[in-house]
Specification:
three-stranded antiparallel sheet, about 280 residues, eight-stranded mixed sheet, alpha+beta
């Protein structure tokens, strides 16, 4: 049976509506991510929708000589930091976001001798939500529907804007380039004299807010919703499979490549922090 995230606006009302996320759900996810060794921190929360930037905000601790959100691009939070973020002292903390980039192979369940894996996210923007069936159709046409189902059943979530996130582990073979992208624009659309993103791949150091985040985080105030899978079931993709996935979204591109704004923002490839043995929360 095909697995296809429901197009926004076409959902049927379930007999028993899914429960609304709670702070306890967010705290539980923080514990699971910490135990697994995935880097994360809270996002900015504010009662003013215009200031909800979807950016990381670990309590503004850098102003007090503490950690900056950039620290967690390359290191895991400590037990104390996690407990400080997600505790009774922060009853309004309702969000969580993860960092893409390199991780020890063991975090993805691979042999310790395997080179670093990379956590990545392919995002179909809310403005392109109506193109979701096209993505699946391209995969089917290319004989890659099994890969589509593996990716979607591994981890797929709906953003408050109606976009879709697919998280996966990329397990590269051989040496990586000295520079990798922070993000890779896979599909663009002309909008007057500017270009807007339809789909992109989020890579080195990118921060992505995830389900079950809710409350004063996204400008809409709506929650992020997990559709399929979870953090224990992310697909592990080879380089060839990763490029096939990118190809489905590149088929949506409406801008001739030479005219496209340069999206190749790069950063140095940092080794994954040692996995260690987390103590949980």
């Amino acid at each position: 049976m095909a697995i296809l995230p429901t197009e926004p606006g076409t959902e049927t009302t379930p007999a028993t509506p899914a429960p609304k996320p709670t702070q306890g759900d967010v705290e539980a996810l923080a514990g699971r991510l910490h135990a697994r060794g995935i880097r994360f921190c809270p996002p900015l929360q504010t009662s003013e929708p215009s200031r909800r930037s979807k950016q990381p905000w670990p309590g503004g601790e850098a102003d007090k000589g503490g950690a900056s959100w950039k620290d967690f691009q390359t290191r895991r939070p400590t037990d104390d930091e996690v407990n400080r973020w997600y505790s009774w002292e922060h009853e309004s903390r309702t969000g969580i976001g993860v960092y893409c980039g390199p991780y020890p192979a063991t975090v993805a369940g691979l042999d310790p001798e395997h080179q670093d894996v990379h956590l990545e996210c392919v995002e179909l923007e809310g403005r392109a939500a109506d193109l979701l069936p096209t993505v699946q159709a391209v995969a089917i046409e290319r004989g890659e529907h099994a890969l589509y189902e593996m990716l979607t059943s591994g981890y797929c979530e709906r953003s408050p804007s109606g976009g879709t996130h697919w998280f996966y582990w990329w397990a590269p073979e051989g040496e990586l380039p000295d520079k990798v992208r922070k993000e890779h624009k896979l599909a663009m659309r002309a909008d007057g004299e500017t270009q807007v993103t339809l789909a992109e791949r989020l890579e080195q150091g990118k921060y992505v807010i995830v389900a079950p985040t809710y409350g004063n985080v996204h400008p809409t105030g709506k929650p992020y919703t997990l559709l399929h899978g979870g953090w224990d079931s992310l697909a592990v993709l080879t380089t060839a499979e990763r490029e096939k996935v990118a190809g489905w979204f590149q088929a949506l591109d409406e801008v001739t490549p030479p005219a496209r704004a340069d999206e190749a923002r790069t950063t140095s490839v940092a080794p994954a922090p040692a996995a260690g043995l987390p103590h949980g929360v």
